[in-house]
Amino acid sequence: MTTAAPLHPALDPRFFADSAARDERFTVVDRWVDCARFDDADPRKRLEFLHRQMNEEVAVCENAARSLVDHPEAPWELRMWLARQAADEARHADNYRRAFLARGGRLGDYPVLSFQYRVLGRITSLAGRLAVQNRTFEVDGLDAVTHAILEAEADGDADLVALYDAQQADEVVHIRFANEWIRRLTAGRPAVLLEVGRALALAAQGFAAVFTEGGGTRVHKYGVAEELRAMAGFTEEEIRTAVALNEERRERARRADA
Predict the structure, then answer these.
(1) 39 closest CA partner among 254, 161, 257, 217
(2) DSSP 8-class letter at 212
(3) Nearest Cα to 257, choosing from 207, 210, 218, 208?
(4) pLDDT for residue 56
(5) What DSSP string describes 14-43?
(6) Residue 104: exposure state from Cβ atoms within 10 A (0-12, 13-18, ≥19)
(7) Using CB atoms within 10 A as the burial measure, which of 9, 100, 152, 193 is most buried?
(8) Is the pLDDT assigned to residue 176 strictly greater than 80?
(9) Closest by alpha carbon to 226, among 151, 150, 142?
(10) CATH number for the domain including 23?
(11) What do you get for the CA distance between the two ends of the chain, in Å?
(12) What is the spatial distance between Cα 96 and Cα 99, in angstroms, rounded to a whole number?
């Protein structure tokens, strides 16, 4: 049986729409504090990451597909990019599933987060969705996977290195097409720019609510993948700003964890 989980009562429904449906194997949670969180030395930490990433890739696939359904008026070229992204994300999810099972995991062993799907459900503008999903969430994932590659290399896990490397290549393309299309969709259109701004503000509030408790340790372990961001279409100024904000965020997290 497939069901959608109710929103956690501590979260504001203004920032979160319905959850994606998951079958009875999975426990869907809305806050980072309710996830399974393990110390770096715990062997379950890698398994939980693979399980959580699998679900996040499914959510991105669902979001791309939902944008296709909700915006039939979008230019054909952009719709093709969204369709390609949905296919890529489905492949990523299956890769994570196979890697997780190969390492002894069972589907549903750990809770999965629903916030990406919930947040995107509150954004109706296609440009806003691209700005949040591709240009924000995917970029954060790009930085996180760069860190994960280094960990897998240190562990001598060649299979995981290959999985992460292939995913990164796809994500760079997803971010780049979003950057290009956001510029095209907003060119000379102040109203669309405002829609993007509102979407980013909503996502920031939603993200802060999800990661308020216990999220600090998640965000200060890795920096900005500057070269990959450049390949994904970010300007030098945008990258410099991202680096400065990342350092500020990591310093706040370090102080909070001290």
Answers:
(1) 217
(2) T
(3) 218
(4) 95
(5) TS--PPPEEETT--EESSGGGS----TT-T
(6) exposed
(7) 100
(8) yes
(9) 142
(10) 1.20.1260.10
(11) 44
(12) 5
Rg (CA), the chain: 18
Q: Is residue 172 scored above 90 in pLDDT?
A: yes
Residues 187, 172: Cα–Cα separation, whole Å: 23
**Assigned token pair, 46:** 């890698």
pTM for this model (two decimals): 0.89
The C-alpha atoms of residue 241 and residue 19 are separated, in whole angstroms, by 32
Helices 76-102, 44-70: crossing angle, 10 deg rounding: 160
Q: How confident is the model at residue 1 (pLDDT cuts 50, 70, 90)?
A: low
Residue written as token pair 């959580």: 52
Indicate the burial class of 235 (C-beta count within 10 angstroms; 0-12, 13-18, 19 or more): exposed
- Please tell me the predicted confidence (pLDDT) of residue 215: 47
Look up the domain containing 130 and give its range: 2-257
Structural domains of the chain, count: 1
pLDDT given for residue 148 in this prediction: 87
Helix or strand or coil: residue 2? strand
Q: How confident is the model at residue 4 (pLDDT cuts 50, 70, 90)?
A: confident
How many residues belong to the chain? 258
54-68 burial by CB neighbour count: b if 16+ within 10 A, else e? bbbbbbbbbbbbbbb
pLDDT in tens, 212-241: 765 444 445 677 888 888 888 888 898 888
